[in-house]
Design the sequence.
């Protein structure tokens, strides 16, 4: 019953969220999505992919482990993220790796709308980025998208376990258009 209630709540919150307001960061970037996983807001819901009680902020964080290869997925057309064509994104988050058996990749993909082929893919590799275990650490990376992007292509964002044997968590994920 708890999982059903959480799933319904996430779906309703996601349906009520709006990307119509532009939020600017101090360097002029436009925030297109931010999620601390207390609400669904654009992320496809699966309550088993949220960990309760070990978040960076709030109660919930996104999780992958030996039983879950991929996390919740953010999915939006580029045209919905911005009415203007853009070429650079910044992905920021807080990540938690409990030990050396943990690894992960916070990734983005650009997908063709007609045939779902991947046109671009990149991410933040935890193994090369995170050097501290057992604590929340900030991670970030900027991505330059191909010049050929169109408004109907889909941007996906997700956490991949990358063969992790231990739980890997991400919280407070923010994606911004830099230019």
Sequence:
């Amino acid at each position: 019953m708890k999982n059903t209630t959480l799933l319904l709540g996430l779906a309703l919150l996601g349906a009520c969220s709006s990307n119509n307001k532009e939020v600017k960061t101090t360097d002029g970037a436009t925030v297109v999505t931010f999620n601390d996983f207390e609400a669904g807001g654009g992320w496809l819901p699966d309550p088993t992919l949220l960990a309760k009680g070990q978040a960076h902020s709030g109660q919930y964080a996104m999780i992958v482990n030996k039983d879950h290869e991929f996390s919740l997925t953010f999915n939006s057309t580029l045209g919905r993220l911005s009415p203007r064509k853009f070429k650079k994104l910044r992905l920021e988050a807080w990540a938690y790796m409990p030990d050396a058996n943990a690894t992960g990749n916070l990734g983005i993909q650009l997908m063709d709308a007609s045939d779902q082929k991947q046109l671009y893919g990149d991410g933040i590799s935890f193994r090369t980025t995170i050097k501290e275990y057992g604590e929340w650490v900030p991670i970030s990376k900027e991505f330059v998208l191909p010049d050929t992007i169109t408004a109907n292509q889909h941007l996906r964002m997700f956490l991949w376990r990358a063969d992790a044997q231990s739980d890997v968590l991400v919280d407070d994920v923010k994606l911004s258009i830099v230019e």
User: Anything to note?
Assistant: The CA atoms of residues 4 and 47 lie 8 Å apart. Confidence is low (pLDDT under 50) at residues 1-21.
